[in-house]
Design brief:
alpha/beta, 5-stranded mixed sheet, 5-stranded parallel sheet, about 280 residues, 11 helices, Methyltransferase, Cobalt-precorrin-4 Transmethylase, Domain 2, about 15% strand, Cobalt-precorrin-4 Transmethylase, domain 1
Length: about 280
């Protein structure tokens, strides 16, 4: 699809993660001048708009209406209207709705312009003190304990790993991290970043539960966790060779499952190859 020359611009606008004074002058100007603001929660965004005297119309764009809202917003953009995309806090489309709108705007050849600014992940990383030239952003871990522990198996990497976590899961998640990576691995716990009760603590995982216990309010608020870098990954293992050896004693499904766990290769792909070998 070719956008008309009069098409509007989709502005992806980073907003404060807590302290409303962190809104950049450019972000405020864009929010004031665009035709409509697509918000994760219009009530949250209106607090920011009221602070800066912005009267721009807001519409909801969240996980439950994302597809329908996206279609309407793309239509508005094609009519020449500028649209601002914001999340409740921070940079949109990072563990928040919005990626579909941005993707569809690109598909329609509509100009997409990022307005950079606050990011909880970047803020926590900068305050962690873990020296690294890269990090892995893992977003929210699974809510289920079993799924969370399974997800952690793949995160032994030689650079910091950043997680978001909800207050009602923070204790369980820290315990799963301790069991997976050991008492001595360090972690930075960033709580309520940029807000009145902000805390950033760097400590060993074995002391994380005690840190929570020291102040009852510490299990409240929003959390970003930065796990210290792990060791280098072991040398790659030939998945097909492992599969071939296991097929000598196991049926294809079991051989594929164990080969995937040993090598990190795709279980489905290994199962397909196992079936081919069995023919």
């Amino acid at each position: 699809m070719t956008a008309p020359t009069t098409a509007g611009t989709l502005f992806v606008v980073a907003t404060p993660i807590g302290n409303l004074a962190d809104a950049s002058p450019r972000a405020v100007d864009v929010l004031r001048s665009c035709h409509v603001i697509a918000c994760e929660d219009t009530r949250t965004t209106r607090t920011l708009l009221a602070r800066h005297g912005i009267a721009t119309r807001t519409v909801a764009l969240h996980e439950h209406n994302e597809r329908a809202a996206t279609a309407k917003l793309v239509a508005s953009l094609l009519e020449g209207k500028d649209v601002a995309l914001v999340s409740d806090a921070g940079t949109p489309a990072l563990s928040d709705p919005g990626a579909l709108l941005v993707s569809e705007a690109h598909r329609a050849n509509i100009r997409v312009s990022p307005i950079p600014g606050p990011s909880a992940a970047a803020a926590a990383f900068s305050a962690s003190g873990f020296a690294a030239d890269r990090f892995l952003f893992a977003g929210f871990l699974p809510a289920s304990g079993a799924a969370r522990r399974k997800a952690l198996e793949a995160l032994e990497v030689p650079w910091p790993v950043i997680f978001y976590e909800a207050p009602h899961r923070i204790r369980a998640s820290l315990e799963d991290l301790r069991q997976r990576f050991g008492d001595e691995r360090e972690i930075a716990i960033a709580r309520e970043l940029t807000k009145k009760f902000e805390e950033v603590a760097r400590l060993r995982l074995g002391k994380a539960a005690g840190w929570l216990d020291a102040q009852p309010h510490r299990e409240q608020g929003e959390f970003v966790l930065v796990l210290a870098p792990g060791g280098e990954r072991p040398a790659s293992i030939d998945a097909e060779r492992v599969l071939a050896l296991l097929l000598e004693a196991l049926p294809p499904s079991d051989a594929a499952r164990l080969s995937a766990r040993i090598t990190g290769a795709s279980r489905n792909e290994l199962y397909r190859k196992a079936l081919q070998r069995a023919k």
